[in-house]
Amino acid sequence: MLSKVVVRLLSSLIVIVGSLVLVFVIVYMLPGDPTDHMLDASATPEMIAQLRHQLGVDRPFYVQFTEYVGGMLRGDFGKSLMNGEPVLPKIWKNFPSTLKLAAASALIAAVIGITLGVLSAVHRGGWLDMTARVVGLFGISMPTFWTGILLILIFSVHLKWLPSIGSNGWQTLVLPAFAKGIVGAGFIVRLVRNSMLETISEPYIVTLRAKGVSERLVMYKHALRNALIPALTMIGVLSGELLAGAVVIETVFSRQGIGRVVSEALMAKDLPVVQGVIFFTAILYVLVNLLVDLSYSFIDPRVRRTAAKEGRMR
């Protein structure tokens, strides 16, 4: 078990390093020049060249990359080209808002998805099954920005129950969290339903029923616990995507967060901010999925037994 954890940690480190290289290469190759947004049309070529030298963007690729990695190792993500603000404090300042949105969205997706998925499998062929599958199809099919606009029209414009913009208080969190969460719920419904149906047909479930164990206990303890592995994987992936893909939803609901920060930085060609935010979210994505992988053994005893057996064989 310990060796698997070490291997998983090393593979996560490799992914993080690869993400660093990939992010820097992509941002470096983006068209445009940061000086275009910092100087007006009257700027002379000499002024542009001087500013490019001050910013360091006229240096060769390997020099910029080496300096950037060296700064990363010291905890320095660089400074914004627009206002000189350090990137890392800027990220930490806006991260709590995005984290709240991602956590609330993941919770909504998990609760709705697992509940409907289980009910769909238990009542296969009934109206609950049909309802759950329709909700799942809706969540998968509808773009996030369109779902957000619909929620604003219904609950903010017409019913006036909840605010549609801002990031202050739990009221402003409800609509964007549901807009993101309903998409994740659509995937989880299908996964849990299919996993439950496969688990129900397993020999040990048949044995439990033959022994007279109640159907409720069979379904909601034994079958559900083993069917949660695919759902847990999806929740981990969705959590990372929610952190990394908050640009659209934060723009629709005018929420301040790292999604808005990277969006504004891209428009201004503020490369250090873009690099810092993308690499920061890449690290979070890897860490979330690492925790999900390590949690498998706590949910499914078969994973622990397999790992222990492999350890004895070695």
UniProtKB/TrEMBL annotation:
Main site of residence?
membrane
Q: Does the keyword Transmembrane helix apply?
A: yes
Please, which domain of life does this record's source organism belong to? Bacteria
What SUPFAM superfamilies does the annotation carry? MetI-like (SSF161098)
Using the record's annotation, list all stretches that form the ABC transmembrane type-1 domain: 95-296
Q: State the InterPro entries in the record.
A: BPD_transp_1_N, MetI-like, MetI-like_sf
Q: Name one Pfam family in it.
A: BPD_transp_1_N
List residues traversing the bilayer.
Answer: 7-30, 101-122, 134-157, 169-192, 227-253, 273-299
What's the family? Answer: Belongs to the binding-protein-dependent transport system permease family.
The record ties this protein, via PANTHER family, to:
DIPEPTIDE TRANSPORT SYSTEM PERMEASE PROTEIN DPPB-RELATED (PTHR43163)
Name of the protein: ABC transporter permease
